[in-house]
Automatic annotation (TrEMBL):
It comes from Blomia tropicalis. This is Aldehyde dehydrogenase domain-containing protein. The keyword Lipid biosynthesis does not apply. The keyword Oxidoreductase applies. Residues 25-480 form the Aldehyde dehydrogenase domain. The active site is at E255. GO terms for molecular function: oxidoreductase activity, acting on the aldehyde or oxo group of donors, NAD or NADP as acceptor.
Length: 490
């Protein structure tokens, strides 16, 4: 499928183990690095979602009763298929999303393998509660039962990576799935559907319906037979999902936006950490919810830090994602590029701007590229400081003391992650306890252990994902209480 001479990929829905041709209009999805049509996506709707939900409902009857050993085996089979096709999937991901190919190979696809292997292994460690009361002859214990048909809605920035982070636990714990990948990046999900046919996964356990959020996404969210929704995406869409499901009390996990702060204290190791901080800003072309977009620097080292940071950002090549030297590549779409450039213009007009131009070859001239914007002398209430931009625009400001740094870091409506850079372990713990975010990294960034809970506070979301948190989300806990007749023995 990854033959580089092929034209656009025609996506079909995957329902009940079969590819269902679209008999409705399709729309184009463009490769961000060159502006060329990469895929045709079906304009699916309610009927397609109904068909997928019915398939998942039918499959749930048997899948929910399978042994954990069988589910573990099948999850590892899926991981094997992704791993076997890593090179192809990485190429498809870069064509479809625009991220550097080295990142697809080193991060996105390997993490997709890990997601299935991790949750397969987690099935070996079932955690139930039991209480025996011999004096009253009562035995209490708990079991965890799958919820049913679950709806998964995933974003365009880490397409296969985040899709599999939801798929793996959903099916590991006995649920069946109707998933809607982003309409901007549907190709690797489509290829995954093809690979599922090489495993023992029963038909109907995983179903993909492709199309727009306003049609497919809303149909999944509002379907009475979809018992829970796991969503990663914008805060605006997450808010709408919460509103639409409020009356049905549908279980939700919403991982949404971020406006993440890095706090750099006067004792921070700039020699070894400036590049790490720059990477936290620019990884995935800053199109990641965990990206640092506000850098708070102690006033005593601000003049030392800023030129080092700018110099480091200049060393990050912006351009062709298939160039192994590229660190920052294209924005996902023409519309998103215009949004990011609008913030760059705001910075030109209201603050001080250092702008690092992309280096484009001829084949990338029609791609969706912007430069790196480093903004200084910016007001704390500027949209540049408070709104999620999701592009390579970062504000660098001074602070006087610890209290001020914490106040500024907490001053947005978001609370997904933050980083603290200091040599003081006491300060690290003290500040971390006061930062309002779901994750705080100290002298590092994007170190993820799947056993640890992941999610945000405030408008960054609700719910957590990770080994135990995903198990709790995708299962219902039942208490069984049995009276034993301890006096009836012979």
């Amino acid at each position: 499928m990854a033959n580089k001479t092929e034209g656009p990929i025609r996506i079909s829905n995957y329902i009940n183990g079969k590819f269902v041709p679209s008999y409705v209009q399709s729309f184009a999805s463009y490769s961000p690095s060159n502006g060329v049509i990469n895929a045709w996506i079906p304009c699916s709707g309610q009927a397609d979602v109904d068909q997928a939900v019915q398939a998942a409902t039918n499959a749930f009857k048997s899948w929910s009763q399978t042994t954990s050993d069988l589910r573990r085996k099948i999850l590892n089979q899926i991981a094997d298929q992704i791993e076997k096709n890593l090179e192809e999937l990485a190429y498809l991901e870069t064509m479809d999303q625009g991220k550097p190919l080295w990142q697809s190979k080193a991060v996105d696809i390997p993490r997709s393998v890990l997601n299935f292997r991790h949750f397969a292994n987690s099935l070996s460690y079932q955690k139930g509660t039991s209480i025996v009361e011999p004096e009253s002859g009562i035995v209490n214990y708990t079991i965890e039962e799958p919820v049913g048909v679950v709806g998964l809605i995933t974003p365009w920035n880490l397409p296969l990576y985040l899709l599999t982070f939801k798929l793996a636990p959903a099916i590991a714990f006995g649920n069946t799935v109707v998933a809607k990948p982003s309409e901007l990046t549907s190709v690797t999900a489509f290829r995954l559907a093809q690979l599922l046919g090489q495993t023992d996964l029963p038909n109907g356990v995983i179903n993909f319906v492709f199309g727009y959020g306003a049609t497919v996404g809303e149909a999944i969210v509002n379907h009475a037979d979809v018992k829970l929704i796991s969503f990663t995406g914008s805060t605006a869409t997450g808010r709408r999902i919460a509103q639409q499901t409020a009356s049905s009390f549908k279980r939700l996990s919403l991982e949404m936006g971020g406006k993440n702060a890095a706090i750099i204290f006067e004792d921070a190791d700039l020699v070894n950490n400036v590049e790490k901080i720059a990477r936290s800003v620019l990884f995935n072309s800053s199109q990641i919810c965990l990206a640092t977009s506000r850098i708070l620097v102690h006033e005593s080292i601000y003049d030392q830090f800023l030129p080092k940071f700018i110099e480091c950002c200049r060393s990050f090549k912006i351009g062709d994602p298939f160039d192994s030297e590229t660190k920052v590549s294209a924005m996902i779409s023409k519309d998103h590029l215009a949004k990011v450039q609008g913030y760059v213009e705001l910075a030109r007009n209201t603050a001080q701007l250092t702008y690092i131009e992309p280096q484009l070859n001829e084949k990338n001239k029609q791609g969706f590229f912007t430069g790196i914007a480093i903004v200084t002398e910016v007001k704390h209430d500027s949209p540049l400081m408070t709104e999620e931009i999701f592009g390579p625009v970062v504000c660098v400001i001074k602070f006087k003391n610890e209290t001020e740094a914490i106040e500024v870091a907490n001053s947005t409506c978001y609370g997904l992650s933050s980083t603290i850079w200091t040599a003081s372990l006491d300060r690290m713990h003290r500040v971390a306890h006061r930062i309002q975010s779901g994750t705080v990294w100290g002298n590092c960034w994007l170190q993820r252990n799947l056993n640890m809970p992941f999610g945000g506070v405030k408008q960054s979301g609700t719910g957590r994902e990770g080994t135990d948190d995903s198990r709790e989300f995708y299962t219902n806990k039942k208490t069984i209480c049995i009276a034993l007749d301890l006096n009836s023995g012979h």
